[in-house]
Specification:
27% of the residues lie in helices and 23% in strands. With 480 residues, the chain is of the alpha+beta class. Helix 8 packs across helix 12.
């Protein structure tokens, strides 16, 4: 059947085409305070750009909401016409879930207001904010909340998937510090959700990965942090890997909650801070952040001194915001990223040996093995305290592949990562971080991320999004 002359073809909820009248689209644009964009319009290229180029898809329409009312209008339109709907916060999700291919995407980049309530130790954050926006604003008051490791990551996606960072051991998952949200649900209602208003919706939002609506404001609890901490990168030759990994295990076993350390097996970059002879060589690196009393930092990090002289040591007293952005250059926008990760409960000899073997065998010079110390506060809450679950996670362990878009060996590199992940899975808790799932991962992997909370999430989905309008994500289908 030929398409009507007065209609546009847009992807429907199931991905197939639906016809939407041009007058309906024009009427929607007229009701919005923010712009509605098509390909070729000013701002289009930036609006559809995402971090992981391997997962890039292009929508038919983009709306850049200027208010919660704009979001509600867009949701109402998508529901009425059964149009595929995506939501872009920072566009940094590895699975590319910000974009609704050939559908309608809400680019939240205009909603970047941040309001610090210093006396109440709270901060209101718009869904278009990046982590660095929030850190810089709150650190002006000597305060911070739990955010991630790269300042360009969007607050919305990080939070909705659970979220972790350098402060997780002190204060839990990011969503453990979420006090309140303003959210537009599938019926286009603007709701406030917290522990007393719509508590089941609030429970689901705390880790449910964008399945329950479009959040238009997050309110986080703040803590006294910094503004000066001790942190930075330190690295030793990979030939010392057995000693370095054993020291990492003993350091994390005794670490105070104020210490967070990310272990990375990687090739040293061609950066000014790396001695020329070491650029491109395999190293064992740790990214350190100590946010406690700086008078005690030497004692806390004494085990690292016992390893002898490193090839790189950038650790120093520095602003917390600098530590929070120190890894930005390691994840440039526009590369192809293929990551596989698991939560693990401990660092056994077998796991550490496997990490060394995997890294030594990579043919991709940009592939890494990473181990992040979690534990602490997140382990003290009940598994059902927020949809995020995974309260038994003490480390996140992963294989991180990346390469340029024109890489001729991309298929082999992907296969290497997948094979390495297959070996790491044997050490996992059975859970995983939903924000690190790939576009091709199926529903079973999503269910594994939530474990015992999954069926409760499906029941909440049936209440707040029975038609599964919000499905461009790691989707949780509504219970029948």
């Amino acid at each position: 059947m030929a398409m009507r002359n007065d209609a546009e073809e847009i992807a429907g909820l199931d991905g197939g085409p639906v016809e939407v009248g041009r007058r309906d689209i024009e009427a929607l644009a007229a009701r919005l305070d923010g712009p509605l964009l098509r390909a070729g319009d000013d701002g289009w290229d930036e609006a559809v750009l995402i971090w992981n180029a391997m997962a890039a898809t292009i929508p038919a329409l983009v709306i850049q909401p200027a208010s919660a009312r704009d979001v509600a209008e867009a949701v109402k339109f998508a529901a009425r016409h059964r149009v595929r709907l995506g939501i872009k916060g920072g566009g940094h999700n590895i699975g590319g879930t910000a974009m609704a291919a050939r559908g309608l995407t809400l680019d939240m980049s205009r909603l970047r207001r941040i309001t610090v309530h210093r006396d109440a130790r709270r901060v209101d954050v718009g869904p278009g904010c990046r982590l660095g926006d929030v850190d810089r604003t709150t650190q002006a008051h000597g305060l911070a909340t739990v955010l991630g490791f790269v300042s360009e990551v969007g607050v919305a996606g990080l939070t909705l998937g659970g979220g972790f960072g350098y402060l997780t051991r002190r204060f839990g998952w990011t969503v453990d510090n979420l006090e309140d949200v303003e959210i537009v649900t599938a019926d286009a209602a603007v709701r406030i959700a917290n522990r007393t208003e719509h508590p089941e919706l609030f429970w689901a939002v705390r880790g449910g990965g964008g399945n329950f609506g479009a959040v238009t404001r997050f309110t986080f609890r703040l803590h006294e942090v910094g503004p000066t901490v001790y942190g930075g990168l330190i690295a030793w030759p990979f030939e010392r890997a057995e000693d370095v990994l054993a020291t990492y295990r003993s350091l994390t076993a005794e670490a105070p909650r104020e210490l967070a350390v990310w272990l990375m097996l990687l090739r040293a970059p061609a950066a000014p801070f790396v001695p020329g002879a070491w650029r491109g060589r395999r190293v064992c690196a740790m990214s350190v952040c100590y946010s406690g009393d700086l008078a005690g930092v030497d004692d806390v990090l004494a085990p690292l001194r016992a390893l002898g002289t490193p090839v790189v040591d950038l650790r120093r007293r520095q602003p917390y915001v600098d530590v929070q952005s120190s890894l930005d250059a390691t994840e440039p926008k526009g590369r192809h990223y293929h990551w596989r990760t698991e939560y693990v409960a401990g660092l056994s000899d077998a796991l550490l040996s496997t990490c060394r073997e995997l890294f030594a065998g990579f043919s991709n010079a940009d592939a890494q093995v990473g181990v992040l110390h979690l534990g602490g506060a997140l382990n003290e809450r009940d598994e059902a305290d927020g949809a995020v679950g995974n309260r038994d996670a003490r480390f996140a362990c992963g294989v991180l592949g990346m390469w340029r878009p024109d890489e001729p060996n991309a298929a082999a590199f992907r296969a290497e990562v997948d094979a390495a992940w297959g070996r790491l899975q044997a050490f996992g808790t059975g859970g995983n971080y939903v924000n690190f799932q790939l576009a091709a991962d199926g529903s079973a992997r999503t269910a594994d991320a939530y474990r015992n909370n999954y069926e409760r999430l499906r029941r909440a989905k049936a209440v707040y999004d029975p038609d599964n309008l919000f499905r461009v994500n790691r989707n949780i289908p509504p219970a029948s």
